[in-house]
Amino acid sequence: MRVLVLGATGYIGSRLVPHLLEQAYDVVAASSSPPRPEHFGWDERVRAIRCDVTDPAAVAEAVDGVDAVVYLVHSLDRSDFKDRDRVAAETVAAAVSRSDVRRLVYLSGLVPQVPEEDLSDHIASRLEVERILLDATDGAVALRAGVVVGAGSTSFEIIRQIATLFLVQPVPTWMDSSVQPVAASDVLRAITDGLADDGPTGAVDLGCPDVVAYPDLLHVIGGEAGLSRVRVPAPVAPTGLVGLGAALATTAPFNTVTALIESLRHDMVCRPGHTWAPRSGGPLLGLEEAVQRALTPSYAGPEGALPSDPRWTRPLPMLDGVPIPAAGKAAARLALHRMRSFLPDV
Questions:
Q1: Is the dihedral of CA 47, 14, 92, 144 positive or negative?
Q2: Using one digit for the tens of pLDDT, what is the confidence trace for 300-329?
Q3: Which segments constitute the NAD(P)-binding domain (predicted)?
């Protein structure tokens, strides 16, 4: 099966491409930037192309001759992400509907069971894109994932940085909602299941066996890192103010942080009866083991860091040998990131 991966250079895409190669798929890796296969360690088995998903001609050319499409495109780092993601989804859906593509797999987000008008812009946009893509072909599936646990994962890295930086962590009471994370390796397994001709269709939720509150997730990450932190409830904390504070306290892109923080008001858990179970059987990775893998520098699996991960997620080896507390290293890392953000990416 020839698979087109749209968004191949993102967090999941950079791990999915080698995973698909291991499963003997023929992979076309597409990204909006010029192809740099050597940057991701891809070999000659990967056909790397440039494809602007808002360009109908480029998308039509990309889907020509492929059997399946994996859609991993999100634009949270832009202020106009809702409009861009809608146009991109409509463009891809139109091309798929006119092609011989048999399977379309979209990595969406968990949708809280609340009225749609109460959804955050981030989740509402994911849901809109999901509906557009599911209408493109009968063989389409939307895999809804919440926090993907792994070094380099945007949501995980934001939480990890917050759990590391502050000795005393104020937690808004509206963030005492439940979350069901999922390990990066299980996301890859679910996407592979979705590519099968008899794979799932419609919207399917992804989640590990553990459901925790956000403060407990901070505790798990801090505990696995060997850090002791105090968390105190903050009854009065508007989402906008919390988003601004988190954006200033982490190295993640500003628009991404504020969009994600807005989504923490509701429970992000899997729906009973609509949760993915691996076709191959076997248990899903638990939260603590997934976090431990993500925090182990030498771990080489999907939860481990890659040299191609965004610069803001990369560790700074120069700080490892400095004899200061973890909070001090986190503060120094933030300061250094702010300074080097003015330098060209290398």
A1: positive
A2: 999 999 999 988 787 666 666 666 666 666
A3: 7-110
- Residues 6 or more apart whose CB falls under 8 angstroms from that of 197 comprise 102, 103, 139
Token duo for residue 272: 């009973």
pTM for the whole structure:
0.90
Q: What residues pair up with 107 in beta bridges, in sequence order?
A: 143
Cβ neighbors of 162 (< 8 A, separation 6 or more) are 169, 218, 246, 249, 250
Residue-level pLDDT at 165:
74
Q: HSE of 15 in the Cβ direction (CA atoms, 13 Å)?
A: 24
Residue 15: strand, helix, or coil: helix
CA atoms within 13 A on the CB side of 91: 21
Q: Which amino acid is at 220?
A: V
Give residue-wise pLDDT tens across range 98-118.
999 999 999 999 999 999 999
User: Which single residue is written with the structure tokens 């002791």?
Assistant: 228
CB 201 within 8 A of CB 138: yes
Give all domains of the chain, ordered by start, each with its CATH number: 2-146+182-207+268-284 (3.40.50.720)
Tokens of 201: 């269709």
Q: How many CA atoms lie within 13 A of 341 on its CB side?
A: 14
The two most distant CA atoms of the chain are separated, in Å, by 60
225 in Cβ contact with 163 (< 8 Å): yes
Residues with Cβ within 8 Å of 38's Cβ and at least 6 positions away in sequence, in order, are none
| 84 within 8 A of 49, measured Cβ to Cβ | no
Query: Hey, what are 221's tokens?
Result: 């990450």
Strand partners, 68: 3, 103
Sort strands 212-213 and 178-179 into parallel, antiparallel or unpaired.
antiparallel
Token pair of 213 as six digits: 């509150």
